C-alpha cells in the first residue's frame, strides 16, 4: 500500500465522502456523497495517476443524437468528461489527476465538477437512460 492511497483516503474523508468499499491491494475506493448525487464512484490510485470514474447510465442502442449531446456537454465540464466503456454501452464520468502532486483542493475540484454536472444535466441523463 502506497502513501498515495492513504493521502487520497484522508482527502476523501476530509471532504466528507462516505467510503463504502476499500480495496487496499488494488488501492481503490468506492465512495458516495448522497447530498451531491454521487453513488458508487470509483477512486482508483493507479500510480502515477488517480482515476475517478462512475457509471452514469447504459445505452440500450447506438444513438448519434446522444453521442452528439454528450460531446457538446463535454466542452462545458470543468474537470473530467463523459466517456464510453470498452463495449460502447456504458456512459461514464471519468477524470484523471496526477498522484504525486495531488492536493485536497484538486481532488475536491474534480468531485465538485461531477456534482455540478449531475445537478445541471440530470434531466438529460435520465432521459438518455430511457432511450
TrEMBL record:
Q: Which domain of life is it from?
A: Bacteria
UniProt-listed Gene3D superfamilies: 3.30.1460.10
Pfam families tied to this protein: CesT_Tir_1
InterPro entries xrefs: Tir-like
The protein's name is Molecular chaperone Tir
Amino acid at each position: 500500500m502506497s502513501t498515495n492511497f492513504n493521502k487520497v483516503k484522508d482527502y476523501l474523508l476530509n471532504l466528507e465522502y462516505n467510503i463504502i468499499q476499500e480495496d487496499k491491494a488494488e488501492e481503490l475506493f468506492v465512495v458516495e456523497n448522497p447530498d451531491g448525487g454521487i453513488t458508487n464512484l470509483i477512486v482508483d490510485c493507479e500510480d502515477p495517476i488517480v482515476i475517478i470514474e462512475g457509471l452514469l447510465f447504459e445505452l440500450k442502442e447506438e444513438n448519434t443524437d446522444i453521442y452528439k449531446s454528450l460531446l457538446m456537454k463535454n466542452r462545458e465540464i470543468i474537470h473530467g468528461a463523459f466517456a464510453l466503456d470498452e463495449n460502447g454501452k456504458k456512459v461514464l464520468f471519468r477524470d484523471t489527476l496526477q498522484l504525486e502532486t495531488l492536493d485536497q483542493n484538486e481532488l475536491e475540484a474534480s468531485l465538485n465538477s461531477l456534482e455540478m454536472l449531475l445537478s445541471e444535466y440530470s434531466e438529460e441523463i435520465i432521459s438518455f437512460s430511457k432511450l
